[in-house]
Records
---
Amino acid sequence: MGNLLLRTWEQSTDPEYQPKYDAPPSFDPHLGFQGKREERVMIATEQELRAAKIPKEDWDYCAHHRLDLARCRADVFPFVWKCRDEAATVSHCLKDDWIIRMKEYERERRLLQRKKIQDQAAAA
Amino acid sequence: MTCYMRLFSNTHILRRGLHSSVSFKGHWNKDWMPNQYPESEEERKRSAKNYNLHESEYTPYKDDHGYGDYPKLPYLGVATRDPFYPYDNPEHRRNFNETLHAEIDMLGEDRYDAGMPSRFSKGYMLWAFVSVFGFLFGSCYLSILYLPSYQPVTAKQYPLDGKTHYTFETRK
């Protein structure tokens, strides 16, 4: 709630230094970190995903959990409720993915605010 | 429906006995049909008398309307009639033998009060409509313009699109 109100306020008062909707982060990914950040690892291969007929919008960093779920469902069908552990694993992975995206958004927002201060200092 | 009107409008069924075996006009629904469209002055007079109307009040529907010689009465709902008059049939505000409007099934008090003065003027109604719906649609429109209607996240990260994505852990 408060987050929405704050974003509303900031987007109306300060639209140039707000993160764009559905855009990737624009700054150097390692800026401000002690050393380099870990890269995210994709475990499933494209071949496996194609073979399992996973839809393309699901070819994300949780795809190997989706493959486990699809495999389990194929094994036990029609008793698919036996795969609830695999389904929960996919959900948890998606939640963590979402948290990373939220953190990226917040990082982008703060770096834009930092850039704003630098621009103002340069203009003054 | 026409049969129903004639049932209440014709005088010749006034003195019928409930179990009378004497055949009388109005016994059958074909007898309740209106007559032919009045062509001559004489026929007009007869039709006006048949419907208990003065000749000056009597105007039939156009010949192609299918109502025959049935009179064209003012298009007024029953709700516009005097509520304090002692009608023979108070729940319908109707007197016995009274000629009914041809569309009385629509003009009853439970239907359309045609000719009733409205409580508010047309301008006030328009103003109320525009202000209520303008507020609703206007607030929706403004919220679309100014409220960020998306989640505060960056674009979804797909590993196979050639870019490198990072966690928030630093490499040892």
---
Amino acid sequence: MFFAALFQTLVGQVVTVELKNDLCIRGTLLSVDPYLNVRLADVVVTEPEAFPALLALRHSCTVRGSCVRYVHLPPDQVDVQLLQDATRQVASAVKAARVRPVGE
Amino acid sequence: MSQALSEDLDQRVLVCLRDGRLFLGYLRSYDQYSNLVLEDAVERVVVRNEAFADVPCGLRVIRGENVVLFGRVADESGELRMRHRLRQVSEEEIRRMQEAAAADQAAVRRRDKLEWPVFDDGAF
């Protein structure tokens, strides 16, 4: 869930999405949903030679989250500290709430 | 999926599938699994960065797991940019080119296989 929230904060930034079929798409992040489906505007395919048919795409496109390998983010826009703190908070909350199994 | 996806409804969209196939059609329906319904669909067969053909295939329901990406196609500018690189040919022509490309690939594979070092059984 953190990651969907993280991507939410990056809406409007230019990101590069690398897919599992080695296709790289650069575009402005329009929206992200909990499946990490990504919607991009002003898409540019970095290797049009390999995927010439994708030049027919108009400005926006939707990438299915399950096909994404990497999302290249602008490093200065990511609050890593906040992400780590939030993760640790939830982890400790889970630990505190854990019920000891019977027999221990 | 995202709210903005509804903008693509009833538009001509290009769908890229996991096996590399491309479909174009009017997006009539979708759901949260990205199952898609395309009306007046065509399969766009592209061979080796040189030619393409649109093969009509009527109404298509695409199961979401096969979808890689989809988006609206530009009416003119994008189409022109694509035609700049690919020329449109007939269905028969593209099938011939597909077969030729497949044969070339098979030849390359065979050659690669032959270039593997052959070890003498006695060495192991």
